[in-house]
Amino acid sequence: MSTLLEIIKSNGEEVKSANPSLELDAIMANLSNGKACSSNGTSKKPFKIFVGYDPREDLAYEVCRYSILKRSSVPVEVTPIKQCQLRQNGVYWRERGKLESTEFSFTRFLTPYLANYEGWAMFVDCDFLYLGDIKELCDLMNEKYAIMCVQHDYAPKETTKMDGAVQTVYPRKNWSSMVLYNCGHPKNRVLKPEVVNSESGAFLHRFQWLEDHEIGEIPFVWNFLVGHNRVVESDLSTFPKAIHYTLGGPWFESWKDCEFGDLWIKEMEEYKKAMEKNEG
């Protein structure tokens, strides 16, 4: 099958990029000229994006961040959720369980708390590559929901993932990997540090503090699972806007040749060139 990049070119479209040669500072500066993303149409504050961070996947985080900033036409504020910092600040004290494949398995649920329970914010795993404009996600936000996410029906057959981490299967698998949080929604005030540090994985990852009707749905292309979701060449609506290397990405040696790995490598090389220019 053709690579996604080839498919896009064959349809007369390139992967969206503000300017591949822009340095990181220039990319970030350009964002200030965009229209702010808000939940009520009046806020001028940047849209807050919290990215799960694990020291083993530092490069994945940097490339994810870069891909967001490069393509966003609205001001965004990208912040890594680092477990070590949360522990130092007394916000996170939970003992790590054997089935936690990353350091952000549970810290992700602190997103509304970190956003001061105000407005909308997004959490996303670091193993994402954004091909779409965050503004398109902002346009999907609906105040009647407490959260919004891609509602996958996903049951992986693999027993391990990434660099040998145990693969677990549970209801609503991968729903929590990319979530739009309506942080001001009363139900999300449940997500205080005390709750995030003590509640079960089932309670948190299955969003059991919410009723089903309080969970809005986002098109699957915003959490396109490599190895699960498929591109239909004749259907542009199936082209991923955010690729999720959920089993493992090219930053792991054993996954360097994974599907859509060429797109991530291209973005990584571009990011490194931008960093070299900044340091020069």
UniProtKB/TrEMBL annotation:
Q: Which residues cross the membrane?
A: none
InterPro entries attached to this UniProt entry: Nucleotide-diphossugar_trans
Q: Does the keyword Ribonucleoprotein apply?
A: no
In alphabetical order, the GO MF annotations are: transferase activity
Q: Which Gene3D superfamilies match?
A: Spore Coat Polysaccharide Biosynthesis Protein SpsA, Chain A (3.90.550.10)
- Give the domain of life: Eukaryota
- Could you list this entry's UniProt keywords, alphabetically sorted: Transferase
Keyword Zinc-finger part of the UniProt annotation: no
Q: Which PANTHER family match?
A: EXPRESSED PROTEIN, PROTEIN CDI
Know the name of this protein? Nucleotide-diphospho-sugar transferases superfamily protein
Organism classification = Eukaryota, Viridiplantae, Streptophyta, Embryophyta, Tracheophyta
